[in-house]
Design brief:
- By secondary structure, the chain is an alpha+beta fold.
- It has 4 domains: 1-209, Beta-Lactamase (2-Layer Sandwich); 259-354, PAS domain (Beta-Lactamase), CATH 3.30.450.20; 363-433, Helix Hairpins (Orthogonal Bundle), CATH 1.10.287; 440-587, Heat Shock Protein 90 (2-Layer Sandwich), CATH 3.30.565.
- 53% of the residues lie in helices and 20% in strands.
- It has helices at 6-56, 65-79, 110-116, 157-208, 222-258, 277-283, 295-298, 302-314, 356-391, 398-433, 444-461, 480-497, 543-548, 555-565; strands at residues 82-86, 92-95, 121-126, 133-143, 146-156, 262-267, 272-275, 318-324, 329-339, 345-354, 440-443, 465-469, 475-478, 503-510, 514-520, 569-574, 580-587.
- The longest helix has 52 residues, at 157-208.
- 24% of the residues are buried.
């Protein structure tokens, strides 16, 4: 049902109440006026009759009927009212409007009866003589206390009715005029009220559409002005609160976007409420529309789906490790229920941590422990075996005793070398964590020459040519002894794996913003699948040959950590049968 306007709804009611009030006021006014007119007419007749009685008081019984009739006609015409003189027996002695001898006795008239009894008589009836409604008032005339006659004054009721009709007409006309003015004033007032209300309503609609910067005009009236000010204040408060909510939302979005952990919020029906960029990346989501869609539509991994279902089913926090993409990514999933301020369950929150690197580091740690155990077990087993053989009697044979003692010394040296390399690695890591190794500007050519001089003897023993290519000055920030150790390790590996009569080449070259120390051998080469792991601790491409050559399996790991301590990196280019080239990449500084 359509709603009516304020004017159409309340103006008819206002008009009805106004007309009712005017009608009641007119009715009371007419009733009061009629009473006043009748009372005034009666009082006027009484005043006239009293005046005439006072004049005739002493002469009423002495004047003849003819004289009284003459007085009645003269005074009645002068006063424009009917005057009648009546004897105690009811005979009419004189009348202003008729001849006394033509009139019947008035002894039975109510006003005459009352006047003869000594009181004032009043009556309102139709006159048989004049044939019209008459208002009568009769007063007794006394002589020595006895009633000797009656003076009656009367007026036609038409006079009173005419006066009342004139008053009624004026009341009606005045009422209509007042009603018209009141209705017009009411219409004007309603318009004055409705126009500001319409402006306030339109302003409120603009507020509802989000235009909170709009200001409502404030009317002069206290009530509507207060309403407009309250709405303006409400708009300001809403604007401030929406601004705060928007800022909080932006901050939340910034926090969620900046998190490395994936965050997925869902309702109880597993419809996605929010998913940050990290979650999109970790879960490999390709669905363009995410919000409002079911988890099964966006994330195809069944383990994630089952994990969310378990959280919703058990209504408690859960934690689980989930493998994605055939084990290439490991996620630590934390699931908990979302609750509103009243404590009601409204959804589930899943936080995903990428633990792939931790898993790999854990695997590397396990492998490192296994490799260390294996590497240490070999020389210890050899030493133990040699000592037990000597104890069992080989010590009595000088030749066997020397041979087993040589084995013990050789394996002890190997054990010492492994421990020394592990200590070097640990020291490098501790110094890097403690603020770094002290570096100062130096020339790489000088460090390379010093490392080559340390390896010349071993190269000559193997009949290898050590080709050191000197270039222009290559200045960088370095720690000469530690960097020299790394180059010695590379040269030593190159000498060990190069055939007799071959060449080991080393030098310094400039790259894009960096300086590169390279060591190139003519060995058997390293397959591509081992390139990413040769710098790991105890990692060996050919374990049997490495141990035969006396390596500890830690040399390249030490090289890598020394490069990292110099803010650099290492790389390898090699192929089976084509030798290997190891490179140390260091940042370049300008002298």
């Amino acid at each position: 049902m359509p709603r009516k306007s304020l004017l159409r709804r309340y103006l008819p009611l206002y008009m009805g109440l106004t007309l009712l009030a005017l009608f009641l006021a007119g009715w009371v006014a007419v009733r009061t006026t009629r009473h006043l007119v009748v009372e005034r007419t009666t009082q006027d007749l009484e005043d006239r009759a009293t005046l005439l009685r006072d004049i005739l008081q002493d002469r009423f019984t002495t004047l003849s009927s003819t004289h009284l009739d003459s007085l009645a006609k003269r005074w009645g015409q002068a006063g424009r009212f009917r005057l009648t003189f009546v004897a105690p027996d009811g005979r009419v002695l004189g009348d202003s409007h008729a001849q006394p001898w033509d009139m019947e006795k008035h002894a039975d008239r109510p006003e005459i009866i009352r006047a003869l009894s000594g009181s004032t008589g009043f009556a309102h009836r139709k006159s048989p003589t004049l044939k019209e409604e008459i208002v009568y008032l009769a007063l007794p005339v006394r002589d020595n206390g006895a009633v000797v006659g009656v003076i009656r004054a009367s007026l036609p009721a038409t006079v009173t009715k005419q006066m009342l009709n004139e008053i009624y007409s004026e009341v009606i006309i005045s009422g209509l005029v007042i009603a018209t003015l009141v209705v017009a004033a009411g219409y004007f007032v309603f318009q004055r009220i409705s126009r500001p209300l319409i402006r306030i309503r339109n302003g409120a609609l603009r507020f509802a559409r989000g235009d909170l910067e709009h200001k409502l005009p404030v009317p002069n009236s206290r009530e509507l002005g207060s309403l407009a000010e309250v709405l303006n204040q409400m708009a300001r408060d809403l604007s401030d609160r929406l601004g705060a909510i928007t800022q909080q939302r932006n901050e939340l979005e910034a926090v969620l976007s900046g998190m490395v952990e994936g965050v997925v919020a869902m309702d109880l029906e597993e419809r996605i409420l929010r998913m940050n960029r990290a979650a999109v990346r970790l879960l490999g989501v390709t669905h363009r529309e995410i919000l409002g869609h079911h988890l099964q539509e966006v994330v195809v991994n069944p383990d994630i789906q089952r994990f969310v279902a378990r959280v919703l089913d058990r209504r408690q926090q859960l934690e689980e490790e989930i493998a994605l993409h055939n084990g290439r990514i490991y996620l630590q999933a934390h699931g908990a229920l979302l609750r509103d301020a009243a404590g009601r369950d409204i959804g589930v929150l899943v936080v995903l941590n990428d633990v792939t690197r931790l898993r790999r580091l854990e695997n590397l740690r396990k492998e490192f422990v296994a490799n260390v155990s294996h590497e240490l077990r070999t020389p210890i087993t050899s030493i133990k075996g040699a000592v037990e053989t000597l104890r069992d009697g080989a010590i009595n044979d000088p030749e066997d005793a020397r041979r087993f003692l040589d084995i013990t010394v050789r394996q002890a040296d190997r054990l010492n070398a492994i421990i020394e390399d592990l200590l070097n690695l640990s020291r490098l890591e501790q110094e890097a964590e403690g603020g770094g190794i002290p570096l100062e500007p130096g020339d790489l050519n000088t460090v390379l020459a010093a490392a080559a001089s340390n390896c010349e003897f071993k190269a000559r023993e193997k009949d290898l040519h050590l080709d050191i290519i000197n270039g222009e000055a290559a200045i960088t920030r370095l720690n000469a002894p530690i960097l020299e150790q790394a180059i010695v390790n590379l040269l030593d590996n190159a000498i060990n794996y190069s055939p007799k009569g071959g060449t080991v080449q080393a030098g310094v070259e400039a790259g894009d913003g960096e300086l590169i120390i390279y060591v190139k051998d003519q060995g058997c080469g390293i397959p591509a699948e081992h390139h990413n792991r040769v710098f790991e601790r105890f990692y060996r491409v050919d374990k049997t040959r490495s141990r035969h050559l006396g390596g500890t399996g830690l040399g390249l790991a030490i090289v890598k950590h020394i490069a990292l301590a110099h803010k650099g990196s290492v790389s390898l280019s090699s192929a089976p049968g084509q030798g290997s080239t190891f490179r140390l990449h260091l940042p370049r500084i300008h002298p």
